[in-house]
Specification:
The protein is mainly beta and 132 residues long. Helix content is 0%, strand content 48%.
């Protein structure tokens, strides 16, 4: 939990399967914030990690479009929240939580919905600085 009382949480976007393939959809009304930016992560080399930072102001929902990932968040007191995501699954990352995505399956694509536009100045570059 951070000083705002927020904790990471898991959820699932619906994924519809039929003979033509799969379709995933997100209804923003059910999210903890209104997204203002989206980006995606793909072609991650084996044994690489992504994210490795926190945010002072930006909340995120990290979700898997294809493939699978594992990772964790840390809060300011060191509480660790581990997750494993498959297509449609998401994890909510509150402000002042360190995020690390550890394992990417081959050809995985991870989407991120963010509550704020990109601003490198609001990044937290060390888990030790989550309260500063």
């Amino acid at each position: 939990m951070n000083r705002n009382g927020q904790e990471p949480a898991l959820g699932t976007f619906p994924v519809f399967l039929d003979p033509r393939g799969a379709l995933g959809a997100a209804e923003f009304a059910g999210l903890p914030f209104q997204p203002r930016r989206m980006f995606w992560i793909f072609d991650v080399a084996p044994d690489e990690t992504r994210a490795n930072h926190g945010h002072r102001e930006c909340e995120q929902v990290v979700f898997v479009e294809t493939g699978s990932v594992t990772g964790f968040t840390l809060d300011a007191v060191g509480a660790r929240f581990e997750f494993s995501l498959a297509p449609g699954d998401w994890v909510y990352v509150p402000v002042r939580h360190w995020l690390q995505i550890n394992t990417f399956s081959p050809n995985s694509v991870v989407g991120v919905l963010a509550s704020h536009p990109f601003d490198a100045d609001e990044y937290i570059d060390s888990p030790d600085d989550l309260n500063s």
